[in-house]
Amino acid sequence: MRRMFRSFGILNYRLWFVGALVSNIGTWMQRTAQDWIVLTELTDNDAAALGITLALQLGPQLVLLPWSGLIADRFDRRRVLMVTQTAMGMLGLALGVIVLAGVAQLWHLYAFALALGIASAIDAPARQAFVSELVTERYLPNAVALNSLSFHGARLVGPAVAGILIALVGTGWVFIINAATFAAVLVALMLMRRSELVPTTRTRRGERGQLRAGFRYVRSRPDIVVVLAMVSLVGTFGMNFAIYISTMTTIEFGLGSSEYGLLSSVMAIGSVAGALMAARRERPRLRVMVSAAAAFGLVCLIAAFMPNYWTFAASLAVLGACTLTFMTCANAYVQTTTESVMRGRVMALYMAVFMGGTPIGSPIVGWVTNHLGPRWGLGVAAVAGFAAAGVALVWLVRSRGLRITYRTSGRRRVGFAFEADGRADEQVGEDAVEAATTEIAVGEVTGQRR
User: Helix, strand, coil % (nearest 5) of the chain?
Assistant: First the structure.
């Protein structure tokens, strides 16, 4: 247990965790209310309108990519976060007032989503890279996993609370409450001991080629390129959960807001379990990402065939664990293997391919859902998971000598064998020159690297 929560021994990280947890609960409440008001109050269960809202909110990740990462590498990340968190709180307050006044229209939600997306695009790389200033490199994988625990723990509580509040007092008050929760992060940032923050190298002002340097660095790291490709596929076409869950609730099962919020919370239970397992790992491994991506595709396929509300809910719990395992490993791998001076720009690129693909994926998934049904939308997610695992396997076969072998020692075993090329500076989830044997839960699987 102590190993799982070892980053809590650091005061600054404890403050960050608590503040982020409160704010994340409010964020999930707002997301639930936003999806619900678009789907049921401003449209007649229009999944495409919901997809457009998500696209506007996440699209700025792509447009602002070159600058958002540079901001995180050049300026004090703590101060950047104070500005962005304040801006997002004010936006939530403004939207709540509009909704309570009874004048909200669909274009208001679109405009709010775009403005929130701009603030989030600047906030995301600074927030991701700021974790490396709270803990040392030794604790960074654990801190990243606990951040995921905070995010998805809030996801367990937020949607359920939002569903109840929507039924009792309406969506407007949910937006107001979310605005208030941003104060928790601001207080945590102000209470931190700045002398205990881990020093980090910052990009100098006036230095030429700073924007291009991040792209050149990623291009020189084929392992990171593969991880980004996997994240892009799953993030663009797979992780449109707001569309899947809301339309399955309303269209397939004919239920309301409380049941919708409960489904999101059930999925978060699996996410929390995945985060706890990730927190125990000493370091991220690429083979775990491949297995989790394949499992994501399989569980999405199973969920598409679930006959009723409760069996669908059970599949979402497993899907949450698979999703969290994949994303936590990918995030921690990129952060721990990237040079500190480049971390903000690389994490901006990571967030761009993860969230910025939604402007492409969510309208497509929304269109498929509108014309073919919610179950076909889940089928798109399944294909994305299988494709992500396939991309990594092809690269491992071509660049790292991955081969699948059958060995017999009393019973049949399927083995993954990695051939290292002798370059210790290129990693496949762990040092390429380190010998290791790992059991993976696919029958009985062994991995060797020599």
Answer: 75, 5, 20
Q: What percent of the chain has pLDDT over 70?
A: 82
Structure pTM? 0.69
Q: How far is CA 382 from the centre of its chain?
A: 17
Q: What is the pLDDT of residues 255-313, one digit of tens each?
A: 887 787 788 778 877 777 776 776 666 677 788 888 899 999 999 999 999 999 999 99
Sign of CA dihedral 54, 389, 68, 333: positive
CB 61 within 8 A of CB 191: no
What is the DSSP secondary-structure string of 332-348? Answer: HHHHHHS-GGGHHHHHH
Long-range contacts of 100-104 (CB under 8 A, 24+ apart): 100/170, 100/172, 100/173, 100/176, 104/37, 104/42
Q: What is the DSSP string of 434-448?
A: ---EEEETTTTEEEE
Whether the pLDDT of residue 3 is over 90: the answer is: no
170: helix, strand or coil: coil
Q: What is the pLDDT of residue 441?
A: 34
The sign of the dihedral angle between the CA atoms of 40, 43, 48, 50 is negative
Find, among 152, 155, 158, 160, the residue nearest to 324 by Cα. 152
Q: Which amino acid would we find at residue 1?
A: M
The pLDDT value recorded for residue 206 is: 52
**Strand, helix or coil for residue 64:** coil
Please give the single-letter amino acid code of residue 316.
Answer: L
